[in-house]
């Protein structure tokens, strides 16, 4: 979920992005007539920042993100409204960066003719980028301890768990609005893939998360996914588990095995985000759910 700095850096791709946009728009036009209308909503884990080919301006959508792959596999006409940096607030309000409008309200893409909607959201609501930055900084002074855990649980309250709880009603409100706008659509809530190793203490300093913090952050991601699953079940949507099928392909794995890039990506992708292999794995999970 890139910061504004990541987004600005990516704009240096300039002319290449314009060419990619032209090609992607042409593909989208042809796909729109192929089958049922599919609308994709969500953040950078949906959009696929820095994975070729990029389009969508500062939203940094990839033609190889899981919505595009799913639409192609199932013959669905796709409108991809996802945008890097999005929170639940950007479902109903325009997304801006330094006063510049980056993306229209994502729910404006959903209409009564929409038959499939996927929603991948919540990570930015709990401050994903800030969490990674804080934990990486804390690890420098105490790589074998659990400084990040101490930071977020100081005073006896787990701040991240509280943020996840507070995000639940926001996700519920988005789902309610989707059902109102597209009452006949099948709605899928897509969870987050396995970022850190399912077992063990990580791979500091290659991935700068202190040994003792890996378990805490792993559990935090599982709690975020559990919240998304619960909200989906409570509000007429299907939850798509992308965590289980990506275990063993986390940031600590070798090139070709890892589907999530680390702080310094070794394949085209934003730091701590899915690469093309990761987006393909998420697409397979979604395709299986849609059937």
Automatic annotation (TrEMBL):
Q: List the disulfide bonds.
A: 59-83, 135-148, 203-252
**Sorted alphabetically, which InterPro entries does this protein's record hold?**
SEST-like, SGNH_hydro, SGNH_hydro_sf
Superkingdom to which the source organism belongs:
Bacteria
Alphabetized, the UniProt keywords read:
Disulfide bond, Hydrolase, Signal
Residue stretches in coiled coil: none
GO molecular function list = triacylglycerol lipase activity
Q: Which residues form the signal peptide?
A: 1-33
Indicate yes or no for the key word Transferase: no
The cross-references to Pfam families, in alphabetical order and at most eight, read: Lipase_GDSL_2
- Name of the protein described by the UniProt record: SGNH/GDSL hydrolase family protein
